[in-house]
Amino acid sequence: MSAIIAVLRAGPLTTIQDEGRFGMLRHGVSASGPMDLAAFHHAGCGGRGGIEITAAGLEFRVASGDCRIGFAGGEFKITIEGKPAQWPGSAELTAGTVVSITPGPSGNYGYVRFDADMAIEPVMGSIATNSRARIGGIAGRPLQVGDVVELTGQSTALPGLPPPAPVDGPLRIVWGLHADLFAPEIREKFVASPFVVSSRLDRMGVRLDDSQALFAHSTALSLVSDAIVPGDIQILGDGSPIVLMRDHQPTGGYPRIATLITADLGRFAQMRPGTVIAFRPVTVEHAQQLLRSRQS
Amino acid sequence: MIGSNLYNSAPVPTLVPLGDSALLVRFGTALSNPANSAAIALASALHRDPPAGVLEIMPNLVSVLLRYDPDVTRAVALAGELRLRMAAVDGAAIAGKHWAIPVLFDGPDLAEVAETLGMSEAAFIAAHNQASLRVLSTGFAPGFVYCGLHAPELVLPRRAALRQSITAGSVLFAAGQTAIISTDMPTGWHVIGHTEFRNFDANATPPTRLRAGDLVQFETAP
User: Fold this and answer.
1) So what's the ipTM on this one?
2) Over the stretch A208-257, which tens digit does the pLDDT of each residue have?
3) Domain spans of chain A, in order of start
């Protein structure tokens, strides 16, 4: 079975992703992969790769062939041949079918996956688009109108993984590489103060608004550049915190006070600008238990 | 922690968790040759024989990142394994490749760099190229390399202002180091020249040529 998908409309940050391009940090390339990995898995349909949709939405037509799609992540609105369908969900598509996805009440990232592999040539072992290194996907760039993606081979039409149980409450962190460089009272305030997700967010990082200007008077430190992991919360030279995400730079020299735990990374990625957030420190062991309980 | 006598002059490493799926072995909080050598030596020893559950090993300027699968190994078990392994690593025994890299010293900051260091441009270029430098680290950007360390009389801080877009192949100089960039990027370093040498090709295996620990002899391009 095969099909050809033709993109009719794509927001500026719509990208092709797979689980990620791991093992390439020393070459200067971070792993990329879905901003909300659980949602990517929830979408189901076991073909390689998927389309990550942003708040700007996506419209595509099955130019030929037929395929099954699964979709999940955030709350988007989807119509298939003009008829509304349930999000998340799945559908059988035949040649000529038009699928239109537009933003819903919440979430930043949605995923569409297929029951066949996206016929995209892997770069450094992955088809994930890396917006920083400009590799992967189609010519290393976001999808745009006129792009055509072929689906080849047949994978088992896997049902989506169940979504993780919804979690509310503070985003959980472990203290970061440079936590000891921040005064104890600053660390206390960091976990006692609200922050707001700003409108300056992309696959590389999410800036936080900090109305208390907690880090405004932090001394500009000259630090030796060191490894970064997704979820690292670094304090920029002007005192603004930024949470580094999937397309992070592999190393950096700004102080990092904390790291968002892996189990909360997708939940955070879905938070829209204006969302008020708080942080709560947990131990590495607790973070790992949460990760295991979500995977099982 | 293991005894520093096992390291000769190398600093005592500390193990720091980086999030819930990575561990950092840090040989210092400031760049020095012993800390850098220790990091490179440990990374290459671990590459040859990765501990169970370790998914990726990346040497940095003064540390080694180990990404691991928390389902396979626990941080405590991995830390114990690393302490045993580190006792056997010799930071002085780095076997890197040798490279000669021609540079055209025509960068917009060359004159200012030479002047600040109290040298003529020709004297600066000669001093810059005098000794081979070690690739201290990679990974900041695709194909990016830090080479160093230069002699103390060639140490200069970064520029106050950022240059917005510097083209791939530019040769940068600051903080006792020379860097080569392989993708366009902004930089606060002094741009002293450019090279035809490209250290990143996404379609090659491996995608970069220079590795941490390699030795680079910069030459003036004809």
Assistant:
1) 0.93
2) 999 899 998 776 567 999 999 999 999 998 899 999 999 999 999 999 99
3) 3-152, 171-295
**Locus of tokens 């973070």:** A287
CA nearest to B210, candidates B149, B166, B148, B144? B144
Tell me if the bond preceding B149 is cis, omega within 30° of 0.
yes
pLDDT at residue number A165: 76
What's the half-sphere exposure (Cβ side, CA atoms, 13 Å) at A31? 19
Say yes or no: domain B4-86 is CATH 3.30.1360.40. Answer: yes
pLDDT > 90 in chain A, percent? 84
State whether residue A249 is helix, strand or coil. coil
- Chain B residues closer than 8 Å to A287 by CB: 19-20
- Write the pLDDT tens digit of every residue in A46-89: 889 999 999 889 999 999 999 999 999 999 999 999 999 999 99
Cβ distance of B19 and A124 shorter than 8 Å: no
- Cα–Cα distance for residue pair B116/B131, rounded to 1 Å: 21
Contacts of B19 in chain A (CB under 8 A): 174, 229-232, 259-262, 287
Nearest CB to A27: which of B21, B75, B206?
B206
Scanning B106-165 for CB atoms below 8 A from A yields 137-144
Q: Which CATH number fits domain A171-295: 2.40.100.10, 3.30.70.360, 3.40.50.300, 3.90.660.10?
A: 2.40.100.10
Q: Three-class SS string for A106-166?
A: ECCCEEEEECCEECCCCECCECCCECCCCECCECCECCCCCCEEEEECCCCCCCCCCCCCC
Strands B215-220 and B98-103: what pairing?
parallel
Which CATH code, of 2.40.100.10, 3.10.310.10, 2.40.160.10, 2.60.210.10, is assigned to B98-220?
Answer: 2.40.100.10
- pLDDT tens digit sequence for A132-146: 999 999 999 999 999
How far is residue A233's CA from residue A258's CA, in Å, rounded to a whole number? 5
